[in-house]
């Protein structure tokens, strides 16, 4: 018998060359995604990647899997519909902090709550990189470098892990794009965990936030043990410096399943809408 050929990370890449700025952290996240898929040996045709709008949302084009580039902030409802219609697919969602937590913030809350078996990967650079450097939902209140907010935003930044935990996400983690292999390991676990998995990836924007190059040296791995207790996870998050990486929470809530019922033929459905 012939031994099956093991898929490598390269098997999951498309022929399209990424157009991110040199030094962008999204290159490493793309690499981590392909490494995770290779670790799991998922056939490329069994994987679908859905995105919204923004620098990081270009990822579906750079992968050799199925992909859907949606509209701004709507990647999660698109992915939810796809997963429920095609449950045999492994569905990943990729995006950034602007797309996911601003116009897409409401969808983020309800995706956590529904707990459909998706993996949501948010590349967080705390800025709108594609549209020239505006403050994003995760930008620090005192960031002074934007021409639009020269005195800082004065607004508390959005804390994605806190929101994910309180809204019911089943797997919560943070990674740093400077550690590609570590990010790949976390993504592998996130994909395998049932229900809604959320991974925030610190992904520097060296063009508009060059100071984020320091993340590589100051980010550290969490010293706490991952937990299935949301109360324990919440207590840890109260002291979170937002630069600590690792898996924080692994819940045991069953993934959402649509209600069973007899399928209705399409012609019958169409008759309901005939005027």
Short recap of the structure:
With 275 residues, the chain is of the alpha/beta class.
Any overview of this molecule?
With 275 residues, the protein is an alpha/beta fold. It has a single domain (17-271), classed as Thiamin diphosphate (ThDP)-binding fold, Pyr/PP domains (Rossmann fold, 3-Layer(aba) Sandwich). The protein contains ten helices and eight strands. It has helices at residues 26-40, 59-62, 75-85, 97-103, 105-114, 160-167, 180-192, 215-218, 230-237, 266-271; strands at 47-51, 66-69, 90-96, 119-124, 171-176, 197-202, 220-221, 244-250. It has an eight-stranded mixed sheet, with helices on both faces. Helix 1 (26-40) packs across helix 7 and helix 5 (105-114) crosses helix 6. The longest helix has 15 residues, at 26-40. The radius of gyration is 19 Å and the shape is globular. The model has no long low-confidence stretch (mean pLDDT 93).
Write out key terms for the chains shown.
275 residues; alpha/beta; Rossmann fold; 10 helices
Classify the secondary structure makeup into a structural class. Answer: alpha/beta
Q: What is the rounded distance between the termini?
A: 60 Å
CATH class: Alpha Beta
Strand content: 15-25%
How many separate domains make up the residues? 1
CATH topology: Rossmann fold
- Helical content stands at 25-40%
Strand/helix succession: HEHEHEHHEHEHEHEHEH
Main beta-sheet strand count, sense and barrel state: 8 strands, mixed
Low-pLDDT runs of 5+ residues are none
Q: Please identify, by name, the CATH architecture.
A: 3-Layer(aba) Sandwich
Mean pLDDT, all residues: 93
SS field, number of helical segments: 10
* Beta-strand segment tally: 8
Shape: globular
How large, in whole angstroms, is the Cα Rg? 19 Å
Strand order of the largest sheet: 2-1-3-4-6-5-8-7
| CATH superfamily membership | Thiamin diphosphate (ThDP)-binding fold, Pyr/PP domains
